[in-house]
Amino acid sequence: MSKTNKLGLWILTALVVGNMVGSGIFMLPRTLSEVASPAGVLLAWVLTGAGVLVTALVFGNLAIRKPNLNGGPQIYAKELFSKGSNASILSGYMSTWGYWIGNLAGNIAIITTFAGYLSSFFPILTSSATIMTIGSFSLKTGNALTFLVCTLLLWTTHFIILRGLENAGKLNFAATATKVIGFFLFIVIALFAFEKTNILPFAEAQMDDAGNKVGLLGQINHAAVATLWAFIGVESAVVFASRAKKQVDVKRATILGLLIALGIYIGISTLVMGLLNHSELVHSDKPLIDAISSVTGPIGGKLLAALGLISLLGSTIGWVMLSSEVPYQAAKQGLFLPSFLKENKNGLPIFSLIVTNSLGQLFIFSTISNSISDAFNFVITIATLSYLVPYFISSVFQIKMVVTGETYEGHLRNRIIDGIIGILSTVYSTWVIIAGTADLKTFLFGMGLLASGIVFYGKLQKSQRSQLPEKLSA
Questions:
Q1: CA separation for the pair 273, 268 (Å, rounded)
Q2: What was the pLDDT predicted at 472?
Q3: Nearest to 19 by CA among 283, 272, 383, 471
Q4: Quick count: other Cβ atoms within 10 Å of Cβ 219?
Q5: Whole-number Å distance between alpha carbons of 282 and 294
Q6: β-strands 137-140, 206-207: how paired?
Q7: CA angle (357, 359, 363) in 5-degree steps
Q8: Stretches in the chain below the pLDDT threshold 50
Q9: What is the per-residue pLDDT for 350?
Q10: CB count, 10 Å around CB of 8?
Q11: Nearest alpha carbon to residue 107 among 70, 157, 142
Q12: Three-state DSSP state, 132
C-alpha cells in the first residue's frame, strides 16, 4: 500500500472525534429533552460513557491482539465459529451487512443535519411553498432544495476521497480541530449565561406518547439509544487499522478520541438545557444555534452555524471513508462480495465507494417528504441498533479469547482484566439492545434491514465455491 494512504495517531484520533462529534452534538439536546428530565439526561450520559469506554477498551485490545482481523468490529463475528464453516461465513457476512447499513443511515443523518444548519444562511431551505402535487403527496420548495444540497455534499465528498485517503484524512483533521476549539468556546460562553431555573425541576417524571408517567430509570432507558448514537464512530480507528502507521496507535486514538468527545457532549448537552427552557428546547430544529443566539444575539448563531457546517463537512468525509472501507475489508476476509475488492490507482476501494454512496443517495430521498428533525430521530434509532450487534459480538469474542487463553501466553492478570472488561461491555450492549428494541415498529424495521442482506448471501457462497478449486490447486 502506498505510504500516502497510511494514517498516523492524530489523523486516526481526528477520525474518531470527527465521526463521533457529528450530527449528534447539534440535534441530541432536543431529542434527549423529549424523553428525559435533566437528571435523566446526565445519568444517561454517564452510563453510556462508561459502557462505551469498556467497549472502546475491547476494540483497542482486539486491534493489538488480532491485527490480522481488519475492517471493524463486525469482522469478529466469524471468529465465534469454526474457521471456514458456513456458520462462520454467514455470521461474518450478516454482521458486516448490518454494520454497513448502519453506516449508510448514519451518513444521511449527518448530511441532512448539514442542510438544516445551512438554512441559517439560506432560509429558503425551510420554505413550505408547494412546487407540485401528485395525489396526496406535495413537494415543498424547502424539501426539494434540501434534497439537492444533500446530494451535492455526498458526491463532492466522494470525489475528495478519490483524490487520496491521507489528503481526505488531513481535511477531516482540520475540520475536527476547528470544531473542538469552537465547542470549547461555546462551553465557556454558556457557563456564564447558564440559568439554573431552566433545569428545574431537575428530576421530574416525564410523560410518554400514551400519556403515562415515566420515572427516572425509564427515562434513562429511553435516552440510552439516543446517547449511544453520540458515541457511534468510536470504532473508526479500528476500521482503518490496516492503514495505520502503527498498530498501537489504533488503541491510543480510540481511547483519546472517546475522552475528548465525551467531554464535549456532556458539557454542551448540559449547558444547552440551562440556556433554553424546556419548551423552547423540544421545539427547536437547531438547539445549539437557538441556545447561543439567546446569549449573543443573531451574530453568535451565525458563527455557530458556520462552525456546524465545518464540523458536519468533516464528519461527512470521515463517515464516507469509513462506510466504503467496511465492505472492502470484509471482502478481503472472504466475508463480502469479491467485487468490493476493486481498487483505484490510489489503493482506494472504488467499487465499494460508488455502491455505498449510491445507496446513500436512496436514503437521501427521505428528505423529500420528512422534516429534518423527524428524519434524524428515525434514522439514528435504526442506525444505532445496527451498530449494537457488532459491538456485542466484539465483547463476546474478547470473552472467548480470555477463556481459551489465545494470545495471552500465561499472562493471568491481563486475562482477568480483559475478562472483566469483556463482561461489562457485553452487559452494556445487551441492555441497550433490549431498550432500543422495546418499540415493535423499530424492532421490525431494524430486523428487516438486517434480513435484507440474505438476498445477496447466495452470490457470496457462489463466489467462494468458484474459488475453491483455485485454493485446492494452490
A1: 9
A2: 36
A3: 383
A4: 24
A5: 15
A6: unpaired
A7: 105
A8: 1, 468-474
A9: 92
A10: 16
A11: 157
A12: strand
